[in-house]
Amino acid sequence: RLVQEVLKDGMDAPTRRVWAERVVQVLNAVFPSPEFQNWPQCERLIPHATAAGRLVEDFGLDSVAAARLLDQSGGYLNDRARYAEAEPLFQRALVIYEKGQGPDRPYTASSLNNLALLYYHQGRFGEAEPLYRRALAIYEKAQGPDHPNTATSLNNLAVLYDSQGRYGEAEPLYQRALAIREKALGPDHPSTVRSVRNCAVFLRKRGRAAEAEKLEARFKIPPQ
User: Fold this and answer.
1) What are the φ/ψ torsions at residue 164 (nearest 5 degrees)?
2) Which of these, 202, 3, 220, lies nearest to 212 by C-alpha position?
3) Residue 2 contacts by C-beta under 8 Å, 6 or more apart in sequence?
């Protein structure tokens, strides 16, 4: 670290920015998606990604690589319930996507979903809802009402409403998400199966076990 500080002291501002951009590009290339199986690699890289996040802020970096690194590292921290660390990364990524990709593009919608999920995990439902609704509107316009990403947004919003006891609003969203996934991805796709399970759990909570069993039988899914 001492050598780093000596080298940085000898750089002018433009050179420091170039090196900051290179650090971000390299980390973006190696930081994996934050699925559970990738957690060990994420944990090894997260100190570096967090430091790179400070470089993004300090130098005003606004590349897609910078936004993706912030989103991926934020996703890992969110999954590990490290919400205070994840939130500024998601917020900065959203600003970059809105500026560079546009406010109505799928990258922006994905970033909105990430930030909304963070708020959902913390019980900040009032902050999550407008982000989920905006993401849904972007996907419907940019990719169409029958796209799998639209189904994901519908499902996210349904889960939010379900958690708030807004069952009348949640049910048609669960149903529409399932219909989209079944048509676009097929009845055996993992996303379709998750939608079936979400619908079945919802129905059982509402005292409609017979409907849940009928739905699971149609998709040949064992009851949970």
Assistant:
1) -95, 0
2) 202
3) none
Tokens 């069993």 correspond to: 213
Distance of CA 171 to the CA centre of its chain: 22
Q: Let me know how long the chain is.
A: 224
Q: What is the pLDDT of residues 157-196, one digit of tens each?
A: 999 999 999 999 999 999 999 999 999 999 999 999 999 9
At 93, the amino acid letter reads: A
Nearest-angstrom CA–CA distance, 63 and 23: 12
CA 220 to chain centre: 29
Tokens encoding 37: 């199986």
CA torsion, points 55, 61, 63, 67, in degrees to nearest 10? 50
- Please give the model's pTM, rounded to 2 decimal places: 0.89
Cα–Cα distance list, 215 to 143, 147, 180, 192, 195 (Å): 28, 22, 15, 12, 11
